[in-house]
Write a structure and sequence with these properties.
Blueprint lengths: L1 H24 L1 E7 L10 E7 L11 E5 L3 E8 L4 E4 L2 E4 L16 E6 L2 E6 L3 E11 L2
Antiparallel strand pairs: 1-2, 2-9, 3-4, 3-9, 4-7, 5-6, 7-8
Length: 137
């Protein structure tokens, strides 16, 4: 009987560790609130964020970014692209001013969120978004 309890506790601990690892470095679920009238999302969404860097980020990808809060946005420009923001040409910087190691090769990325363009550093993007459930609360 004690052997079965120890075995169960060990299996449970390993499963819990695997869940922690997957949530931390692979996939995470978020409940994201957004403003009404957003073109890319609805009021509240349950989204799954793929944190695995299997492929480079491309234009059109929906991503979860965080500054003070978490936001869902769509990639519109990559480092080196030239775009128009508020009727002015803007070249997306290839080399960021940010001292972190993850931005050295990634540079800045332009993300459209709630109808506005945002220039964000690569480390502010948590991963690609897969919409799971739309909630109108």
């Amino acid at each position: 009987m004690i052997n079965k309890c120890i075995r169960f506790a060990l299996i449970f601990a390993i499963a819990l560790l695997l869940v922690f690892i997957v949530r931390r470095w692979a996939f995470t679920l978020y409940l994201v609130s957004v403003e009404k009238g957003s073109q890319t999302t609805q009021n509240t969404e349950l989204v799954m964020v793929n944190k695995l860097p299997l492929a480079p980020i491309q234009r059109g990808d929906k991503v979860l970014m965080h500054c003070k809060n978490r936001y869902i946005g769509q990639i519109v420009a990559l480092p080196g692209d030239t775009i128009t923001i508020e009727k002015q040409l803007f070249v997306v910087p290839v080399r960021p001013q940010c001292p972190c190691s993850c931005c050295v090769n990634g540079g800045y990325i332009v993300v459209k969120c709630n109808g506005k363009m945002h220039v964000v550093c690569r480390h502010d993007i948590e991963g690609r978004v897969k919409h799971l459930l739309f909630l109108n609360l």
